[in-house]
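U., I forgot to send this yesterday:
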Amino acid sequence: MAAFWVLLVTAAEVQHVQFGSTVTLSCDISYLYETTWLKQTSEHAPIVVLCANFKEGQPVAGFRSSHRFSVGLMNRSLALEISGLEEADLALYYCIAKVNTLLTVGKGTVLKVSPSGSYPSSSLLTFYHGFCMFVISGLLLMAGGLHHPLENQNKS
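Result:
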């Protein structure tokens, strides 16, 4: 069983969005590491929406939960791009990567549509972040580490 240390990042930023637009979410983990993007809502456990890496000078998406999710290169990291933004996309997103034996969790971004001049409450952000970190930590402890979603398929 592999041992992992979990680094928790305490800040999530809010990005105000418009339905139908394309949104790019930055990650603060180097593109040199395979990056996984998670989506978290208050109603559901985190889900993997994209796994990406950097090959031959280009960002490459492996697993993705929707054709609307893609990967781009932004500030020397693998950014999540969501096209045709829908209401179901409004959530908290985190990038994670295994850096040596350390599971690194990048800064989170909350996608929110709000009326002009209205800003989300900090208590909502605290809830999202705390709940996400609690669930991710629990899942990692139960699973015994970080595994790629397609890992078992490649063994067949």
